[in-house]
Amino acid sequence: MDLDLSKQRVLVTGGTGFLGWHVIEELKRKGCSQIRSTDRSDADLVDPVAAQKLIEDYNPTVVIHLAAVVGGIGANRENPGSFFFENVVMGVNTVEAARRAGVAKLVAIGTVCAYPKFAAIPFREESLWDGYPEETNAPYGLAKKMLLVQCQSYRQQYGFNGIYLLPVNLYGPRDNFSPESSHVIPALIRKCIEARDSGSREIEVWGTGNATREFLYVQDAAEGIVLATERYDGAQPVNLGAGSEVAIRDLVRQIAQLTGFDGDIRWDSSKPDGQPRRCLDVTRAWETFSFRAKTRLEEGLLRTIDWYSRFRKEQPRNRA
Asked: Looking at the DSSP assignment, which residues form a beta bridge with residue 123?
């Protein structure tokens, strides 16, 4: 039987963030009206006392744990220690607090960065432990993988219903477009639009362009998370993705075309490519809770570009 979300009290950690906003909208669409969204300003999950108080005060029946410290390759290289520590501790504290409070179900969100650097393509959930993650984001990936260990061990010892999902790289409206910490798609969209508007004839892109990535539109990801919340109660991890990959070189050309930037692309091969390839096997998500991505990459990119273009116009301009 599916979990009736209209009767649940749902706590979404990190609910004010990029993915969190879309998950909450999907929960509402499913009839869930009792939703508590948190961010670091009202509950610092690195503090075990704060995590316990948050869950005891709201008394949720379901916790969707999205809170994370994230960033692109540059941010991961500059902050490996804090990315590891804060993500590990937030996960440990949230799951333990939920167990102590008797929460009926917890949905833990992992990351594709948890997979081994040279995992066979497509990445199958069974290969998650076959090697060490790609070095530039290994601390983050390993920290998030500990959520799987915690959920499985708590299920075994306490009968705690914690499930673990592995989304691939996400993109879409409300993404982080900061030059310091954004992921590849929002970073490229911003570079191309700013170069187009300033009349610049060149943009610089990290790496060689030969690496591949798989991208999942954020609204599809939110749908997958909520479907799993309703329908999946298993111990095994489940990939969330689109099931196809694109070379970064081709992605850059596509974004340049869609944004109207017709200048040159200069590749800085002294910067890392990151993981050589990323592409998920998404069979388990379909078989266990009937999730399949709906949004084609070009369609999702156009929606994201449109959102960012409108967002830029709405921002107050600095005055001299």
From this structure: 280
What total number of domains does the chain contain? 1
Give Cα 5 to chain centroid, integer Å.
22
Domain that residue 282 falls in: 5-175+215-242+278-294
User: What DSSP designation does 133 have?
Assistant: B
Pairing between strand 169-171 and 202-206? Answer: unpaired
Counting Cβ atoms within 10 Å, is residue 156 exposed (0-12), middle (13-18) or buried (19+)?
exposed
Residue 286 host element (H or E): helix 283-289
Backbone φ, ψ for residue 270 (5° rounding): -75, -15
Task: Supply the pTM of this predicted model.
Answer: 0.94
Q: CATH number, domain at 86?
A: 3.40.50.720
Instruction: Please check whether residue 273 lies inside any domain of the structure.
Output: no
The per-residue pLDDT for range 35-82, each reduced to its tens digit, is: 999 988 889 999 999 999 999 999 999 999 999 988 877 888 899 999
Residue 113 lies in a domain: yes
The active-site residue, picked from 58, 115, 132, 140, is 140
Q: Is 140 a catalytic residue?
A: yes
* Distance separating alpha carbons of residues 289 and 291, to the nearest angstrom: 6
How many whole angstroms separate alpha carbon 235 and alpha carbon 17? 27
Strands 246-247 and 169-171: unpaired
